[in-house]
Protein: Glutamate-1-semialdehyde 2,1-aminomutase
Organism: Paenibacillus solani
Amino acid sequence: MSTSRNRSESLYQEALQHIVGGVNSPSRSFKAVGGGAPVFMKRASGAHFWDEDGNRYIDYLAAYGPIITGHAHPHITAAITAAAQNGTLYGTPTELEITLAKMLKAAIPSMDKVRFVNSGTEAVMTTIRVARAYTKRNKIIKFAGCYHGHSDLVLVAAGSGPSTLGIPDSAGIPTSIATEVITVPFNDLEGLQAALDRWGDDVAAVMVEPIVGNFGMVMPKEGFLEGLCKMAHDNGSLVIYDEVISAFRFHYGSAQTYAGLTNHEAIQPDLTALGKIIGGGLPIGAYGGRKHVMEQVAPLGPAYQAGTMAGNPASITAGIACLEVLQGEGVYEEMERLTIKLTEGLQASADRHGVPLTINRIRGSFSTHFCDHPVTNYDEAQDTDGEAFAAFFRHMLDRGVNLAPSKYEAWFMTTAHTDADIEDTLEAAEESFKAMKK
Ligand code: PMP
């Protein structure tokens, strides 16, 4: 089976003339799945995309996470339209910002104070600055394969896009900056203790995706977050949770209060970075934390952070509307029900055709690893069959299913997916696994 994507091909050639690499984020390129033109989408509605050639796709990319209510959700679209009519950018405070801040605080109790920014990258970057200002220390400990955006400090041994493209460290980052970051394996408390023993006095913060979304979906092992928080705090370091993916993904709240993780009191961070879902599909980021830590931030304290676009009424309104949809009864349960149906079907199909497949599912999201071993850290996620993933990705695309073009990225269910979408996806998967074995 082959689907015509002639217009995507020609638009890609044109894009290459004007936009570096033809894409505005490297993870959108098809480099990790054999190259060639990415699909140029023209329209999206609910769980579906239509490309420039008129092909329809069931979407599990969800724009790398934010689109949890599906594309062009009517409640969010109405909110954005109303916001646009009232003016999109003020450069003054608005009541809307208070509303969204209160919603975030109510859902994530460790955040006494919030500040809105424009992206997850900005949010994470600033939590690091604030932690350094508060502790008057310099170094950061992070975990291999966790992706924290593209600011200098966190592009050291990062996962997600950079690992997909095989760039362990980005060019343009001075060694002097890279030496401020220590990377240890995820789920490895001994490694963390060793790093703290070596660098303790100078460690400002231990930063982690408490539930990983960037080398597949990976849960912390039992006791990992408790141990991490205790070790960091005993050392006088702060704990930063990057919840850009995980907040509002698994339940109405964040990993800090997720029922799949117990002992919530012992896993509270000092600072949290947010993005993606909280903007309802418009650009946003936010960070927040304990009052005494957040009071480091200007205009109250010496740590400077600002933004022309920060807290703009359009993004804030879309974020409020998105969270309102997520407050609906049974929303997460339904996404989970569909995801269980999908993952069970995928596993059975792969098994039937003898394709090794490990699926990590956490409620309404999951990752597919082409291997026959568990994936609990970045090394294990790397040790999987990238060529098999690339083949599967292309077969699925040709059968109208849009996945992220990387073996490390998750599949995201949305509130717009239906049983019919799952059944169509499973049919496409059955044909894809079969074709892979030929
Ligand atoms: N942190 C995490 C955990 C992420 O997954 C991402 C983006 N994938 C970021 C930070 C960066 O967010 P943004 O792309 O909005 O800058």
